[in-house]
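subagent[fold] <- orchestrator: predict structure for attached chain, return C-alpha cells only, no commentary.
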Amino acid sequence: MQEPVFLICFDGEPSPSDRERFHLKGSVPGPGGRPLWMSYGWPADLVRLLFDALLGEGVRSAAFLPGIPPEELRWLATEWRGALVTHLDLADLLGVASESQWHWAHTDENQRIAVLRPQQERPEVEQKTPPVRVLEGTATAYREELFSNVPAVARVRLSEVRQDLSSWFGDLAEPDVGGAIALLTLSGARKDSDSLVLRNPAALGLVCEYPEHSLAAYRRDAGLQVSGVGTTMREAPRHVVELRASSEEWAHELDRLSGADCAADYVALLELSALRDPEIVIGEGTVLEQTGITGAQTLSVARPRSVTVSIDEIIPVALPAWCLNASLNAPNGEPIRPTPLRFSEGSTQREVWDTLSDLLKGSQA
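subagent[fold] -> orchestrator:
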C-alpha cells in the first residue's frame, strides 16, 4: 500500500530553502515534462506552507494523493493553478474542513477529489461605485436597468426568467448576439436551484459594447459565423479533432498558444467564417458564454487577437482565457459563443476571481 504524498508543482526550480521546508524527496515527471516534487511531510504542516506559497509566486499548484499516480493521472497536480487538490479520503488529514481560509471550489465524486483554493483576506477598500439598486423582480424592471451604469439586482425565479429570455435580456438573448446566459451564470444560476439574485452587467463589472471590427459587431450584423468550444489547456488537443478546421491548422494554433506569454489555464477554440474578408479584432476581456446553463464555466479572453477571415474559409483561433466562475466545473468541450460583454479586471486568474467575488458580495438583493 502506497503512502499518501504531496505532489508540488513549482513555477521554477525549487530553492534549497524550498527543498528543506517542504521536505522534498525528488520529483516525478508531470504533464508536458513539468516536474512534480514529492513530499511525505506532516499534512497539517504542509497545508499551512502551501497556503502562503499558492497565494504567492513560488508554487503553481499541488495535490495530496494516496500515492504516486500513473502518468495519465498526474494532471491532477497541475490542472488547477493556485489550488490544492486533495483526494476525498485524505481530506480530514489536512485539517481544513472548517477553515474559512480555504474555499472548497470544486468536488468531483467520480475522481474522488476536491479542489481547495486559499482565500486571502483583503483590506476593505473605499466604495468607488454607486450603491446597488434593488429592483422589483419583473422583466420590465430589469430590462429598464439592463444597460444602466448603476449596479442593479433583482431577486427572481430562474424558471420564470428562462421561459422568456428575450423579455428580460432583449437582444442579448439572441443566439447570434449572446450575453443572457453569461449574465445568468455569473449571477449564480445553477441547474439545481430556482432562486437567483439576477444582476445587470454593471453589478458584475461588465460593459456591453460593439466596437468596430469586433466579434460582437460582425455577429450582430450577420457578417460573421462563429462556433467553438471551451476547454482547458491540457485538454485542447483532444477537442480540436472534433472541430471543422484541419488538424494541421489547429496544430499551428496550439503551437502559437503554447508560446504565448500568458498564465491562463483555459482556452477558447473558435472557428470563424464569413461572406467577405473582415479584419476581426478580438478584444481582451471579451466574454464567451456557454449556450445554456450547463454547469461549466464562463470564460473571458485573456489576450487580444486580430485575425483576417477569408471568404468561404474556416479560420481556427485558439484564445487563452480566464475562468469567470470559480465554483463551476472546468469547461470540457461544451459549445461556447462570444458576446458583446467585456470583463477586463485582473491580469491573473486569482485577480479575476477575487474581483468577481467582491462584486458578488457587494451586490446582494
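orchestrator: received. Logging for downstream: The mean pLDDT is 90. Residues 43-55 form the longest helix (13 residues).
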